[in-house]
Amino acid sequence: MNRPIRTPQELAEAGYIEAAQIDDIARVAERYAIAISPAVAAMIDPTAPDDPIARQFVPSAAELVTTPLERDDPIGDLTHSPVEGIVHRYPDRVLLKAVHVCPVYCRFCFRREMVGPQGLGTLTPEALDKAIAYIAEHKEIWEVILTGGDPLVLSPRRLGEMMEKLARIDHLKIVRFHSRVPAVEPDRIDDALIAALKSCGKTVYVALHANHPRELNAATRAACARLIDAGIAMISQTVLLNGINNDPDTLAELMRTFVEMRIRPYYLHHPDLAPGTSHFRVSIEEGQQLVAGLRGRISGLCQPVYILDIPGGYGKAEIRPTSIEARGDGCFTIRDFRGGEHRYPPEA
Ligand code: SF4
Asked: How many of the other CB atoms lie within 10 Å of CB of 52?
């Protein structure tokens, strides 16, 4: 198929769900969007029952279960939205959510109530102008993070128009895009799109969202290389997901592959309390053990920052296990990567 799979019927025809599951999946689809791009479909092994790519994108009846702790806006975007499309949570940066559509819909998405055809839609030209005016009026804003939705679904023409407006804001220095496009629609990363991204004249970063090393295939690598060769810096973001990447080998391979692709590992997100996603969540203790295990196992270049978005909109907090403890006598106990403990400063 050369177009995305979007309906329960199409999922069944592709062999991703059984015919008997169609009714349940139709109930999921009433609330949460479905899309599996052709590039993602090509990554899925339909013979593997727990294929880690399929689990990220093929809906399941488990999404019909919302637990008491889960909430529609798990990271509190709406609490910090002074104008439509802007989230201003930290002093020196804002999110600009120009679109609420994606080329694929992740089953664990933390903005699943906002994205998709039934979501918040695309900003009107007037709303976009107001959002950009907000950035221009707030001189403390050093960085704008385009997210959503996936901003790289916009056409090069529309991206270029937006970049031109951002280019006029002198105090804005960094424009960062959060996107899955280089992996899930790699052909979109062409000369026209790259020219649009660069047209703002600012330093541009693209944060690639990828959760399993199999997403980093030859097509993804080539798309990222086109961005990086054009002078666009890349960082990574990964969600720690039960049954997909919560094992040391997978995480180590993913982080190493990012570095081999010249992408600096950045965020490892603890999964958010989005509705119908409890089957993806791991405990913080498990996440900390995995992250501690990466320390001795792979190069410092490959270490992600393990973070939790504090529910309610209080921002991100680093939750990696600490390797240092105050002893109470002015000295510290420091743990090395093998678990050995040492006093600092050492005995004279
Ligand atoms: S690409 Fe991002 S915004 Fe879109 S569904 Fe996936 S996690 Fe959500």
From this structure: 20
